[in-house]
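Sample pair:
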Amino acid sequence: MVSVVYHDDLKEVQDDAALAALLAEPAAAPFDRLEWWCALVDECDLFPLIAVMRKGDQRGVMALHRQQRRIHALANWYSFRVRPIFTHGADQGAMLNELARDLAGEAPHLVLSPLPDENGEASALAAALRRGGWTVFLSPCDVNHILPVKGRSYADYMATRPGQLRTTLKRKGGKIRVSIETAFDPASWEAYENVYAQSWKPHEGSPAFLRRFAEAEGAAGRLRLGIARVDDNPVAAQFWTVEGGTAFIHKLAHTEASKPLSPGTTLTAALMEQVIDRDCVSLVDFGTGDDPYKRDWMEAVRPRYRIEAFRAAWPQNWPAIARNTLRSLARRG
């Protein structure tokens, strides 16, 4: 027998001992941690709806949030992915089926993204929603560039990079001084923010969220903050973290004035050497987005998916169902 309960107070989640133990386990990624969800709620003005599935001592959890008459995954532009999380050996199929049925009483419209499907997460969730009476549209929404290290050293990895990239590093790398920090330092973070403000990047979505995350990662020893300098002036900055055998590339920027020196290329190379040879990661994850420069560093691409699900009995949903049906038919065509 599976039951589903919802929490809009993240402190309540910790009152369930089995669920608290699940969320206290070493995470595969920061996006699976309760601290990440708390920061999204506190710093990004999201109203949480944490769905907890129970079957005996088994637990499953899906972090969601409300937005008017819709329920979304608890995520924003900083989230590489979202997914349901389960205790070891949990009956995931039964739990997802019950969640799908129960969500019908919470909202007539669901929007869940970006979902992975490497282990069938998006497919299983879409199938459960269809069994629960939802009209479901599953479609690609983004891509995730990754580097499977496959036991290589940094030198072996660099030998396979494009010739133009290696030439740039040889010609310009000597002009750049690089530092990599594993503890949070306010002065270094200020340097990162100054570089970002002078870069081609759009306005930061939530600086308070990002700083809070960097401070926590520094305290846990997972932070890798790289700063590139020319004549002691910061010209490029990158914010990475390392966790569970994966290096996550969260943010990177360089000043427009420094572009001829390619400081971002030199800094990325230094961080790659750090995570491959010293942190000994098995995977480097460049997040979402199909930026051309990512192909110079990464070797594989994983799709990310969006589920949009509707209760067809709601007349307000009919125009959206029609639009999604036409788009689905167009993609197939």
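The chain has a mean pLDDT of 95.
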